[in-house]
Amino acid sequence: MSFPNIPNVTPTIDIDREDVINLLLASIAFEELGLAHIINSEAEKIQAVLGTLPSSSVRATTIEDLLAINQSVNTTLKTVVKKEMLLQFKLEDVLEIPTT
User: Fold this and answer.
1) Nearest to residue 44, comparing CAs of 75, 69, 80, 81?
2) This prediction's pTM
């Protein structure tokens, strides 16, 4: 196996402190948006197995099925909460960056 050829790249990026702060805030916002989509999909999962989601024909037939879905949603939401905490720390750090 041979080594890959990596071209000599010398990028010139010219952004100031304010641009960096705005990019960091935008990255936090996009991560929050992604987490909102995950939360929504978990809500739809519960609606589907309960039979209250109009576009779904999936339905839990036993209490064990409901408990399994509940556990799955619970695990996912715990992970989302952990990520939310990390994003809160990131946001606090970004807001402490001096702009001048």
Assistant:
1) 69
2) 0.79
